[in-house]
Amino acid sequence: MDRRKNQQNAETVAIYHKKLIKRRKPNRSIAGDFFLYLFLFLVAVVMVFPLVYAVSSALKPLDELFKFPPKILAQNPTLDNFFDLFVTMGKSWVTFSRYLFNTVFITFVGTAGHLIVASMGAFVLAKYDFPGGKTFFHLVTVAMMFTGYVTQIPNYMILNKLGWIDTYWAIVVPGFAAPMGLFLMKQFMEGLPTSLIEAAKIDGANEWRVFRTIVMPNVKPAWMTLIIFSVQGLWNNKAATFIYSEEKKTLVYAMQQIQSGGIARTGQGAAVLVVLMIVPIAIFIFSESQILETMASSGLKD
Amino acid sequence: MKEYIKKYLVLRRHNMKVAWKKAKRSKMCYLFLLPYALLFTLFYIAPVVASIFFSFTYYNILEPPKFIGLKNYISLLLEDDIFLISIKNTFLIALVTGPLGYIMSFLFAWLINELPRWVRSVAVVVFYAPSIAGNCFVIFSVFFRGDAYGYVNAFLMNLGIIDTPILWFINPTYMLPICMLVILWMSLGTGFLSFVAGLQGVDRSQFEAGYMDGIKNRWQELWYITLPNMKPMLMFGAVMSITQAFGVCDVTMALCGYPSTDYAARTIVTHLFDYGFTRFEMGYACAIATILFLIMILCNKAIQSLLRRVGT
Fold first, then answer.
1. Residue B92 placed within a domain
2. B33 in Cβ contact with A117 (< 8 Å)
């Protein structure tokens, strides 16, 4: 009893102590703080303005869209533009639900596959020392140094040889091997205590079991990070170079057709932007703390 | 000398033997890595190799590739005026948006680091959102519309700075600066997240120690304590911004059109698309891709060796 009380006392003292340290910030002047935060606030407003403007134009009825001078916020917000969008899409030859299915299918399969394939590779690269492992990882980091555009044309030829042009696989499978995912996963897994894995091995688990039941549940923050990067890439994929058939094209592609439909579709165009940006941003907001936890180990050492 | 080579060979052979034994023992590892390695080789390594190979040939997909030596490179650099324009544009964009975007990423990550927890998470969303908002940047074409109803034009005309509306995306003088603006708006991406996370991980006791050692203001603190601690993240962020800065094409194609007036907004990647997917001159396009690849890798290596000196 006494000991517990003592412990509690110690804890309160520790918290108090922490607060004291926190309050005393050396090397900071009040004026400097004030101006820096004012500056930060102004920049934040500038950054967020186009996004807010896109959302508010999507909510504006037609007469407000062309009002001059423009108001930043919609006076009579309506969802008409979104309904019109569905009506316009409904009239097209390929139905809206088909486009949606294509995008969701590509995003889901691509992300799931990327997650599994990249974490399996990352697991052995992070936790085992085997010949060729280091070299391979170095190659992956080099691959992060050039954009996908460099490889686009040979990729086209390779996919052509495989007979995957004009199928979903042309978009999905190359996404499995995105170097960024493996890199982040590997860096994060290096932080896992090796003793955890060794203990499981002594208990008789094989590598696959260790991977499935011990490593994967412990790296959930990294999952979220891989998911956001992969979804962001696939959700916005126009798939225009590798897929020709209209019924296999993605939502983004269909929506961009609407967007280019001239001034009468300004409201619908804004609605398109909102639909497209809402998914990645929502995922990011929900998983921000996990993503930041992963990014803390993202550094490139040499 | 002979002795030396002999010794070297023996050593090599011994190393190979050890490696082979180790490899045999870690079959499991290779099995795990196999799916990724296979796909990575197929879609990342093989294309780079193929790209270099095809850059020395004339290839239009229908006929088998014909070896023509360095001809592609020679005509690219000496005869193709538009390619030179695209190189100039790409470098201009990269030199402005790359370093600026990088510095902005770090600066804002550093400034929001001391905010209270929930303000910080809101700020991260606000700064990061533009880079994941898909093609939301298209909204800039409303702001910069070419007629008198475009907001920027109307604003400038009301102030009396200009008397006729400026055709922002058709007049070559204004295309690139506006594209740079938009790219900067979107530049707080993955590198920014890495910085935010890295700054959280810097050991607090180091700051107190620095305070004792006579660090006087936040800028000294930044240079002597924060930056050296952040080196790995700085490297990672640099890779991200260089790759992004040289790969610009979405923004310029969406805002200025494809092709743009007088090719004033053409970048290397746009040129690559033009030859690869419109004219199907794959050999020529591969030469462009190889040049872009070399530029990116060299730039990355140069920046990395520069960053190693930070804080010393």
1. yes
2. no
